[in-house]
Structures are given as structure tokens and as C-alpha cells.
Amino acid sequence: MARHLEATIEAFPIAGSFTISRGSKTQADVIVCTISEDGLSGRGECVPYRRYGETMDSVMAEIMAATKAIEPGLMRDGLQSAMKPGAARNAVDCALWDLEAKRSQRPVATVIGASGREPIVTAFTLSLAEPEAMGADALKNHERPLLKIKLGTEDDESRMRAVRDSAPDARIIVDANEGWTSENIERHLAIAHELKISLIEQPLPVGMDAILSRIERLVPICADESVHSTADLVSLRDRYDAVNIKLDKTGGLTEALLMKAEAERLGFQIMVGCMVGTSLAMAPAVLLAKDTDYADLDGPLLLAQDRPGGLRYEGSLVYPPTPDLWG
Fold this sequence. Notes:
alpha/beta; Enolase-like, domain 1; TIM Barrel; 2 domains; 10 helices; 23% strand; metal ion binding; isomerase
């Protein structure tokens, strides 16, 4: 029986709004790819990202153009050359993983060596807001062991101090979303070091980060927008201490596994991150995040309502997916 591919757009309201230095959003727009064969179906979810030149329409078109690429007999490795990295390939790749797991009755966790039902700790993200509001949000979540705060303003010092005052015991990741400059980064690093910030994510714009190789990195620096696939890693070693692996950047779990192995070989700390999506998007990332330094997989916690049968979250702990959800 021939494989059948379909893709649908779904929207999930965010609880309140989610704000970073580039703007705010009130709903998560996702695309779900479903690949069916012999009465079985596999699903994968992606989140198109305008920062990378993606729109809902462009990603839908890429997915539907992949119909020939997912004909029976073509393995996921072939998908690597048939589609470019990005959200579209992520949805197709993860749908193929899910379909293969159902056909073989071997869970993806077993195949990639991530078996076990132990939960991992995920960061919980605080949206960009005024310092007082971010402090209040941190106080509300002060018992969470790992917080991630969105920055990238003219007064990030007040925001960092407000969050640290409200959550004195939490590990904190700062994500500037390319919002700092070569003129202020050393001052911000000194403040972050004073406040015992654990990690700074993508402080400078892509292509404007050469200064990171010349200054003392008082706090480890993590590449996000600067790193998409395995081929990017070698060129980042003089500027970054960690890399953020997101399936919507790598183009799926297949490339993400290769990237994780190479990042480990090169000595990078590893974060597995996400866009704001549902548990279907997080499921393969949760398996990828096993034994990494940081997991930032709180997308469903930011939604007003997740999809049915979603991941199990207990506070900041997230458990591996069940086969009914994915994999």
C-alpha cells in the first residue's frame, strides 16, 4: 500500500501571552504532518519561525512537496538530502520515526538508547516584561529548580536582579534573543556572574558575535540562532560553550541525534530546546534531552490547553511520551 501524507494547521491559545525581544504572541500556530501506510499512522509537529524565513504557508508547501520523498523504501537518511533543514523536514522526519515505531513495535526510545520512564527537569520560561512583573512571575515560580528568562532590553540588569531576588535558589538561564551588543555584553556578563546566572543564550546577533572569542566569558554562552545543524558546530568553538539543539532548526530527530553526538565530541554543553508548541512537538525532544546539560521543553506549560493525551508534567519534571502520543 502506498504511503499517504497529509498536513494540517492547528492553533493553541497561549495562557496570557508570550513575549520576547522581537514581539509577543497569544497563540501557538503549529503544523502536524501525518504519514499513513498499511493502516498505521505516524505524526510529527513543527512550528514555523519567521526569524528563519518560515511562514505557515511556506512550510505547508514544503511538507506537501515531500510526498515523493516519503515513498515506501526511502529511509529517513534519504530525507536528509530530499529536504532542507527546518520546520518542514522536522514534521516529516518525526512522523516517519513515529510510523517506524508502530510498524516495528520498537519504541523510538529503545532505538536511540533513551529507554526508561525517568523524568527530566525542564526549564520554565518567564516572558519578557517590566522588572517588577518579571520579579512577581519569578516569585510565583520560585520553587522551580530551573528558570529561563527572556531579555534583550535597554535595562536587562533590573530584570535579572528582580528575578534573582525572587528566586534565590533557582538555576537561571538568560535568553537575550540576539538583543545585546558588543558595547554592553561585558557589563551584562559581569552582572550575570555576580547573580550566579548559569547560562547566557544567544546574547549577540548572528554574524556579530566575534567579540565572544576575545572577551572573558564569565558565564557560559550558548548558541541558539547561530547554530542549526551539525555542520555549524566546528566554527563555533571559539565563541560558544554550549549549543541549543531544536528539532525545528535541525529538521528533525535524525539530524538532532547526529548533532548531539558531535557536540558532545567537541566538548560543548548541550541544551535541548523548543518553540512554543504542544506535547506532540516536545515528545521526540524529551527523548533527545536524556543525559544532556539542560532541557528547555516547557512549551505545553505555556499553553492555555495542550492537545489530548499530552506529556505528563509534574512541576518542572516532564516524563517520556507514551506510545499513544508519539514514538
